[in-house]
Structure formats: C-alpha cells, structure tokens
Amino acid sequence: VRDTVAALADWGTTAFRLWLVAADGLVLEERRTDEGLLSAQSLGFASILQSHLAAMGASERLPVMICGMAGARQGWLEAPYVPSPAGFEAILAGAVRVPDALREIRIVPGVAQGDAAAPDVMRGEETQLAGIANLRREGRTIVCMPGTHSKWVEVRDGTLASFRTWMTGELFSVLSRHSILRHSIGEAPAGASETDVAFLAWCEEGLAHPAETAALLFRIRASSLLHDLSPEHASAALSGLLIGAEVATARRQFDAGAGELLLVASGRMADLYGRALSLAGIAVRTLDADVAVRDGLTQAARRFGMLEAAS
Amino acid sequence: VRDTVAALADWGTTAFRLWLVAADGLVLEERRTDEGLLSAQSLGFASILQSHLAAMGASERLPVMICGMAGARQGWLEAPYVPSPAGFEAILAGAVRVPDALREIRIVPGVAQGDAAAPDVMRGEETQLAGIANLRREGRTIVCMPGTHSKWVEVRDGTLASFRTWMTGELFSVLSRHSILRHSIGEAPAGASETDVAFLAWCEEGLAHPAETAALLFRIRASSLLHDLSPEHASAALSGLLIGAEVATARRQFDAGAGELLLVASGRMADLYGRALSLAGIAVRTLDADVAVRDGLTQAARRFGMLEAAS
C-alpha cells in the first residue's frame, strides 16, 4: 500500500480534476467535477479544493500542484505568464505559491507569446507539454492540442518555441447553441458515430475551403431547410467543417505535413481530430491529454519537492 | 393630400416595419418596431399587423404586401421558395394570399438555390433586389447585401442567377455576446467612429488571411490580455476581421473586382462595408436598403393591383 504524498489538480474553465498521488507518481484516487473557473469564482477556489481533499481523507499538510485557469487574472491567484520561447523547466519553476494556506499550494504559470504581430496565450497546455518526455529531446515537433481553444505548438530542442490558438471548440459550442444553426442541430449529440459520413464530407469542405467557413456555416442551415439534413448530421457537419478549416490553416502555418504530428487529446476529440488529420494526409502519433497533464503536474510537484515527504 | 391605398411591410426575424403608401408609391406614414418573427410567433402575426393598421387609422379593406420571414415555415403563412435562377416578375407574382382575412394580405416568397452542391436560401433580399430598376436591364451585376446573414448575389439579364450567404452579422453577435470575446468587448458599442484604426487594421487581416479567422478571433482576445486592446477597439476588430474575411472570399467567388459592385445597405452597415470594400480596392455604388425594400414591395403591390383602388 502506497502513501498519498501530494495532490495534483487541472483547473480549467469549466472542469476541475483532482488526483491523489504516491511518491512515484502513481494515481491513488481521482475526482472530476464541473467546478471549473466559472463555478469557482462564486464558490471560492480554496473551499472547493479543501472540501474535496477533506472528503478524500487527505492530510491538512498535503501539498497541491495546480495548472490551468486557476492561475488566470480572474482565477485564484494570478500566476504571471512566462514569455515564449520558454523552456519547460523555467515554466514549471515559475509555479507561484498561494499565500496564507496551511498546506503548500502552487499554481503553474501559463505562457504568453508577446510578439505584437501574433499575441497569444495558453494556460494548462504548457503543463501537458512539460509532461511529455519526448519533447525534452533535440529536434522539432509540432503538437496539436484540440479543445475549446485548440493550440498548435512548435517545440524545438526542448523549448516551447511558438504557438497559435484556434477557437474551434468554442465556435462549435456558441454556434450550435446560440446561432440559427441551433434550429438545425437541436439537441443532437456532438459527433455520434453514425454521422461519420457527414463529419468526413464537411471536414473535406473545411480542408479544401477554410476561407469560406462563414459561408459554409450557412450552407449547413440551408441543407437542413432544403435537403432535410438531420440534426445529428448537422452537428457532425458543423464539427467537421470547423475542424477541417483549423487543420487546413494550421498545417500550412506549422508546415505540419513535413514530419510526424503529435496529437495530444482524449476521447471524442482524439477520434475526431485523428480522422481529420488522416483525411489531410498527415501522419499522427497520439498521446492521451489526461495522462500528459498528470505527468506534467507530477514533474512540477517533484520540482518543488512535493513528492518526497510522506503526508 | 394623397389617399392611402395600401400598406407595405418588411417582416424580418427581429424587426417589423410598416408603411402606408399612396397610389404613386409615396410613403405617407411609417412604423418601426421590434415585433419581428420571434415576437410575432407568440403575439400573433394577424394581431400585430391589425393593431398597427388600426392605430394608423387604416381602413379595414386596405390591402397589405409583406416580405421577409413572415413567409417562412415558422412564420405567418409559408410562401414556398421560388427556385433560382428566378426572374423578379416570377418572384413577385408568387406572393401568396393569407386566407380568411377581410383585407387582401399577401406575402412575397423567398428564393431557394436547390443545387445540392451549394444550397442556399433568402427571404427579404429578393424583394429589395426586385425594387432596384437597374437590375432589370441586360448585363451582369454583383450585389452585396450586408446583414445578419449577408448575401452576395449575381444578377444577370434581369434574373437572380445565383447567390451565397455569409453568417457575418450573426457571427459578430454570438461571438461578442457568448464567446470568451465578451470579456474583451464588454458592453462596447459596435463600430464607433473613433475605432476606425482598429476596424481597418483587422479588416486588412481578414482580407489577407480569410482562412485564419478562427485563429485571428483568439488573437483579439490575446491582444486585450497582453496589449490592453480596449473594449471599443476589440469590438471594431471583431467587426473588421469578419467583414474582411467575407469580402476576401466573396470577391473571389463572384469575381467582384471585375466591375462595379452594388452595395445595398443602410446606416452603419453601409459605412463599414463601404470601408472594407474600398480597402479591398473594389469600386462600389451604394443604394439604401430601406428604399430598395420599399420599392420592391411597391412593385409587388402594383403587380396585384393594390395601388389602384382607393381605400
């Protein structure tokens, strides 16, 4: 039986995940809730964390390493962005300590690309990247990290060199719920498997004509009015179109066809992006995003000696 | 003093406009409310129209010609789409009569492009086009009609030949209110004049890189986080980016640089699109959209003899 020595938390905009880990990084217990930034702003970050740790029987001195939106300006404690290009050690070493807490609680900083021509920010993905051992080596790797705000990242010789964000996931969400497309999509679940044909057909449109997205979006509406496109197919079409347009433009910017692409994703996202990248003829290696973020948090916790003391 | 001989109504998704006109088409009285389709579905189309006509002192036999979403499936009475290519006479002649009304009430049909490869629909714009005398002549004209769902239309030899819809206005609305960009834009009014610089700078981005819209959207967010982009400038940036991307792709599809473009728009839309088209180097002639729709409704009313009888 292993002892719990630390807790790790990925605190995103809408999701909160907490793990208790042993000295060797093995996960002993996990919790997943929807108490992300948006809930935590009203409920309080400290009390959410404390209530879960108490319920899991954790000691009052158990240290906690956190990444994600908890470190945003509107989060728990601002963990100022590390400017890119940035080495992973420097990023993890910047984890700021929450003051006035009995236990040691630290939050990993995000990364900012201050470049006036291409300003961009990330919070959370830097920790996933820090958890991928292969990225510490020499050489160049392009990483695709799907999500609400998809990131494409160039890692060069162990350094987070540059990155860019596509609002793909959020576009899917706001368009399917708040635009006229809601009449076409209704309550249809996103990306059901029987909609493969629609996903692939519209993904090809997005890949071929990424500049025409704003027009192709309305074509989804017209297709349901004139050609009885079903809600399930309309949902798959929207997803395919947006992901296809992202892949088409990102591959060009990152010259992603040149070598193997690293796809860091889980579940449905891994499946959809895998199909889109395959359609684009890009060779892909996939890593589970959940594993990556935990490994990155483990690295950060080890960096601050959190994995050494027994609780 | 002229007698009122008919009423004309433009019944859109969110707006309702009603005019009383004389036999020569001169407007004698006007009303504008927000009782569009969305309100009318609950309040009732007949009672909204009747209450305004009564308040304006119109006779119970005064005929009414309507265009727009009142003719949609979810509207007052479905006025089935006329398939394109379509002549303007055929469109106006398709105005369906609302049954069981004491007065003659007719609704102009929309136009559908059934083509499986490029399905599209319009309701309201066909009436504006029918009101533009120049479009009845021989030759080819490209028409840009900005709005919630912007239409670009090719009119050839007096026939509505083909068209395409960009969801530009709706993208602005849902992104500024429901996406992460709401934190950057806040309650800033859209398109204030002091934001000319931001509008033009981001419009150039959209014109140059229309395929990268989903990434440039996030750059607006990053610019407010890292470079203190103000809410007014963020709003102007979003507007410029989306309009620029629309113009870049539409001009290519419609070969719009080849000749003069007809811009049918009013107020702020006319101003913003005028600047974007000028930035793209496209020569433009502008017609007021309000005048066009009234002229189109007048044509339709005359077609059914509504302008002949005194009320």
Describe this structure in words.
- 2 copies of one chain form a homodimer.
- Chain A has 311 residues and is of the alpha/beta class.
- Chain A has 11 helices and 15 strands.
- A 6-stranded mixed sheet of chain A has the order 3-2-1-4-8-7, covered by helices on one side.
- The longest helix of chain A has 24 residues.
- The relative contact order of chain A is 0.15.
- The model of chain A has no long low-confidence stretch (mean pLDDT 93).
- At the A-B interface, strand 13, helix 5, helix 8 and helix 9 of A face strand 13, helix 5, helix 8 and helix 9 of B.
Helix/strand layout:
The structure is a homodimer of 311-residue chains.
Chain A: E1 6-11, E2 16-21, E3 27-33, H1 37-43, H2 45-55, E4 64-68, E5 82-83, E6 86-87, H3 88-93, E7 96-97, E8 105-107, E9 111-113, E10 120-122, H4 125-130, E11 140-145, E12 150-156, E13 159-166, H5 168-178, H6 182-185, H7 196-208, H8 213-227, H9 231-254, E14 261-264, H10 267-279, E15 284-287, H11 289-303
Parallel strand pairs in A: 1-4, 4-8, 5-9, 11-14, 14-15
Antiparallel strand pairs in A: 1-2, 2-3, 6-13, 7-8, 9-10, 11-12, 12-13
Helix pairs in contact in A: 5-9, 7-9, 8-9, 9-10
Quaternary state of the chains: homodimer
Distance between the termini of chain A: 14 Å
Order of helices and strands of chain A: EEEHHEEEHEEEEHEEEHHHHHEHEH
Task: Sketch the major β-sheet of chain A.
Answer: 6 strands, mixed
The averaged pLDDT of chain A comes out at: 93
Flag low-confidence runs of chain A. Answer: none
- Strands in their spatial order, largest beta sheet of chain A: 3-2-1-4-8-7
- Portion of residues within helices of chain A: 40-55%
Rg of chain A, nearest Å? 20 Å
Structural class of chain A: alpha/beta
Strand content of chain A: 15-25%
How many helices of chain A?
Answer: 11
Total strands of chain A: 15
Shape of chain A: globular
